[in-house]
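Hi support team,

I submitted a single chain yesterday and got back a structure, but I'm not sure I'm reading the token output correctly. Could someone confirm the output below corresponds to the sequence I sent? I've pasted both exactly as they appear in my results page.

Thanks,
R.
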Amino acid sequence: MKRSDFRFFHRLRVRWAEIDMQKIVFNGHYLTYIDTAVTAYWGRVALPYDTAFHILGGELYVKKATLEYHASALMDDDLSVGMKCSRLGKSSMVFEAGIFRGDKLLISGELIYVFADPATQTSKPIPEALRNILLIFEAGESVVDLKTGNWDELKDGAAALRTEVFVEEQEIPQELEWDEHDAKALHALVLNKLGQPVATGRLLQPQPKLAQIGRMAVSKALRGGNLGRMVIDALVDAARQRGDHQVILHAQCSAEGFYRRLGFKAHGEVFQDAGIDHIEMTMKLV
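Hi R., thanks for writing in. Yes, this is the structure output for that exact sequence:
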């Protein structure tokens, strides 16, 4: 087993509480590392576990878990946990895992899951939709679709996601979330292969040659998987194609680093919008 066997990795750092009396990671924690990586894997295939598996009509239960120990992880090690779905049966699936420090394999593991009815915990066939998602992801294909359009075309998905993120998670009053600008904006919406909205944003033109991106939202369980970048790239491309010279946005300060990595620069002082600290950021297109 080597790093190139995996296309998905979850990174973590060994904590003091995970070290045993031999000053190495206690053996049982490796299974926790792998289980954490499995959760992150579902995020990478754009499936918010609770809602997605409800749509799929079942849940996954561990049938068997095995680990093989090759070397020990130490305090403060940066580890990469590789995860892949290696086999799909009628109702079972096999995940292989590799825990690496750099290129060195420390732990290899295998998890066998059974797809089952959560009420009776009896096995049932893996839905074709789930089977297809796993197969295309492991083949290197995209597990999401991006659409751009007007509010009438995309409002069902965009409004549902914005309600989830802004109104429910961030507790922004509904009257502040909805405005007259939606009707004249270009919207971007990312959908997973179950048709669930997982990321969205909108593009306005407050004055000639100036674009403004706003209402950026990504499903909480899927953040860190480049869905936000996909929306930004689509909206920036649209602004460039219509001849805009600059893009501005009002970033929540907690997301400033994300926008900096995409090429935006901060300007001015921090200000509050809906009770949340924001800062203006810009990107030149010409």
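A quick pointer for reading it: The mean pLDDT is 95. Let us know if anything else looks off.

Best,
Support desk
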